[in-house]
Automatic annotation (TrEMBL):
Pfam families, A to Z: DUF1861 (PF08950)
Source species: Caldibacillus debilis
Signal peptide start and end residues: none
Annotated protein name in UniProt: DUF1861 domain-containing protein
InterPro entries: Glyco_hydro_beta-prop_sf (IPR023296), MPT-1-like_LmxM (IPR015045)
Superkingdom in the source lineage: Bacteria
Amino acid sequence: MFTKNTGVNTCARLLEKYRLSPKPFQPEKMVFSGVGNRDVYNITAPFEDEGELVIAGRVEARDQEHSEVYFFVNRGGEWVPREGAPVFQLQDPFYTRIGKELVFGGVQIFPHPEKKDSLSWRTVFYRGERIADLKEFAKGPDGMKDIRLIGLEDGSVGVFTRPQGERGGRGKIGFTRIPSLQDLTVEAIEQAPILEGQFSDEEWGGVNELHRLANGWIGVLGHIACFDGEGNRHYYPMVFVFNPDTLEFSEMEIIATRSDFLAGPAKRSDLVDVVFSGGLIRKPDGTAELYAGTSDAEAQKITMADPFGKFEREKR
């Protein structure tokens, strides 16, 4: 059985452990073109659609927050917009497969209903057998990002949430189980119990991608984040594993830092030390490729030992 979470994690505590761990290697910048003078970042890992690999990425001007999500395909070593693919008015795309369907989503921004000249956000979900068939089927609660879904062994759907405010502070992780995608409602998401003891009240985190492991546990790829004394943000990719039957979960582990990636520009000076986990490709040789957004300005990938491999070898 994995070591259970034994106390509140902080960025500083997890970084101390990470400094003693094997580091990722072979960082590589992803080359995107065909979107004008705009940045592509916070990408998904590549996934197959109609026989070819596709990456969804956030496309945005350096001085704006209004973004679009494009689907890119590799042409001669560069990732270019897929001809005829839909473009969504979203941020921070994600995907999973549940049954025979592709489930895709992202963050939709809209004018705040109460605060003048401010924005609010919600997570929007689409489903279809392929990208060309995607249709909206659900929305999350206003003000909630980082809602992720996973198909479970019994046919039900696991839902990871990220409440803020009175329940979640700056952002904590919740979990609930629903019978099917049709049951993904605002009420179900809002009522998901929080995984207690993961974050301090001054820090926050969320789930980015979910992996069903061979032993039935869920491998969670996410992020933990904090502010420093000058108000700069620090985002670190992290993982933990979760038992959907007992609701037990392991200690979080940071798996990379910004300095492990190649140097590059930042959207703003307070976002230099930001790595936003996009997706993880687990490989047969025991390694994994992490696809991530760096400094809210670029997309990179990096190779590491599969962070879920040691858990998958354990008995459930």
